[in-house]
Each structure stands twice: as structure tokens, then as C-alpha cells.
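PT: before anyone asks, these are the final sequences, not the draft ones from last week. 417 residues across everything. Please model them as a single complex and drop the result in this thread when it's through.
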Amino acid sequence: MKILGLISICITGWLLLSAVSDFPEWGDPHSPANSYQVSQHYITKTFAETSVPNMVTAVLADYRGYDTMFETVVIFTAGIAIIGILRRYDSSSNTINKPESFTEKPKEDLIIRTNCRLLIPIIQIFALYVIAHGHLSPGGGFQGGVIFGASFILLSLAHDLKTVQKKLPEGRILTLAGTGILIYAGFGFATIVLGNNFLDYSILSKIMLGTPIEARSHSMLGVEIGVAFTVAAIMFSIYSNLVSGGKMKEGL
Amino acid sequence: MEFLDSISGKFNYWVYIVLMMIGLYAMISKNNLIKKLIGMSIFQTAIILFYVSIGVKDGATIPILRHDQVHHTHATEYHHEITEHTSTTVTHSTAAKEKHTESGPDEISINPDDFANPLPHVLMLTAIVVGVSTLGVGLAVTQKIYREFGSIEENEIIKKITSDQ
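LR: through. Structure below.
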């Protein structure tokens, strides 16, 4: 099996390497991917059309908004799937046998807890900045959401899973995750109700402040907040389910 | 020497192919399920490297407009907004404005060669998300398999399945 795998890898690798000479040189601004009109249009027209200086966010949340909406749904589905795979309600049978030294709880370290208490608010404020500035500077809903979820993971590592669950029970996590998709889809349905295409935000200037172009920028911020809700909630949900074997009782 | 030059000019493709083959080899021939998942992650990272390296331009910066460029464009944009505001329908006004900005002088200030290609970045942002989701589900399935069979070695699992029948 190993030899067979190695041979097939060598053949595939050789085929791919023999095609390398046809690829454009490194950093060539006139390569097909870089000179094609789609990317040229995004670079030159994005700000005029959406008043968002960050082209990546503009493409992500506006031009390819439909794709990103279902990307959020993919994360949500993954979170639900992990709960469905791992969840069990019987307490005793077939638990992962931990070594003896792990079963007795070590006393939580004061230095670690104090450091986390100092760090977590800063991490969360930074996450909110990354979300809110996603359309002006590097950042966005996915990145900020992951940072926000990581702050909860850090809290549950430093203290206990129970400490986080007191603040953020599982039902609330899943509600937040669903709320994110609801916000995103809500923007889409609002555009339909007002008479435009799905996720064509310019019509929202009728109910928002500003011009149609500014409405696209503001809607992108709203959509990114929705993405951040889902990503932050599901990141912590994935972590807590994996670490507790689906029982959500005690973690690492 | 010619061979070395051909490698150094397209080094990114060589790195991505080697990384991808490492990942594929781990997925095919490793017995341990966690190692297979590690292989899958390496594979995905190689694809991400490939796409992002395609979007690189020499001497270009990140695809975010600088503040001074934004300010300049924004001012003229606002001016257009006021002049075009008399048009009745929204679509008509935006169409007219696009026409206007195309011939406007501020359009020259944005040179596509100054900014990296944003499209591969967007595509890979979504690929990273899918990567996290698949890795999470894969780890969950592995944990379930361990709970069921007491092992994450593929040959031991197969032995247990065949002995049960």
C-alpha cells in the first residue's frame, strides 16, 4: 500500500511539475490571472461602485455575496454536524479512558488565570475592531469572528468549560450562530422586498442614510457582522464539543 | 544551470506541488486517521499557497486603497453625486455616474499593476473556511471512531470490523 501510494504520488507530482513550465513567472503583472478584466474591474472600479477601499471585502461581501452567504451556512452546518456526530446523553458508557493523572483535577494556576483576565478583554476589543473595520482595512467577519471565538477558547482553557458555559450556554451559542445567518439573509430579503435583486444592496439607500453607493458600504458592514456572529459561535461550539467528547461537561 | 534558473523563476509552483504531494501521500498511505487529517490540511494549505502566489504582482501592494487615493476619489465622487441627483430613478443615476467616472480624471490614479490581485485572496478566504469546517468534522468523526473501536489505526479498525462479522 505504501509503495503503491508512493508510486502514484511520484506520477502525479511528475505530471504537475511537467506543466510548471507553462505557468506564468512569479510576480508577472500581465499573467492571465492578473490581466483578466474581472480582477482589473475589481481593482479600478470597486471604490467608485461601492465606496469600500478594501477590495477583498468588497468582492467577498458584495460582488460574491451569494457565495459568502452559503460559506457562512457551511460553517453553521459543520457546527451542527459535529454536535450530531459527537453528542450523547448517557453519562457512563464508552468514555474515552483518560490516564489516571488526568482524572484528578489539577488546581488552576493563578498566573495563567490572571493573565487571561488581562488578555481576554483586549483580544475581544481587537476582534470587534477587526470586524468593524473589515471594509476599510485588513479584516472582516471571518477573521474577527475567529479571533472572538478564540477568546472564549482561551477562557475555557485557562479556567474550565463550565466557566464559559455559565456565561454562554450551548443554546445561546447556537442561537447566536443562527442569528448571524439570519442577519445575512435578512439583508438579502430586504433587497428583494424593496424591489432589487437578492443581495444587491444599493436599493437599501431607501431605508438607510446616504447614497446608493454608501448603502452598499454600510450593508457590507452589516453582513460582516452577521458572518462574525456565526463564525465566533461555531468556532467555540466546535472546540467545546471536540474537547469534551460531545458531553459538554468537562473539557481539558 | 538552466534547470536551476527554471526552478528559481517558478519556485512557488515547485513548493506548492511538493507540499501537495506530501499531503496526498499522507492521506493515501498513513494508517493513523489523525495523520490522514494532517495530510488533508497540508494539501489544502498547498492549494492556498498556489492561488495566492498566482495573484502576486511585482512591486504591488495589498489590494486596499491608500487613504490619500480614497480621499481624492471620494471628493470627486461626492461632487458627481450632487450634480447627478436630479435624475429620477436610482438605476438611471448610478448608470449615468458610472459613465461619468469612467471618463473622469480620478480614474487614472488607480493603476491595476499597483495592487495585488484581490480575486485569489477572496477565493482562498472561503477555502480556509471550508478547510476549518472539514477539519472539524473530520476530527469529530475520528473521535467517534475511537469511541466505537478503541483505535484510530486503520488496520486495527479493519481487523475489528472483520472479526465482528
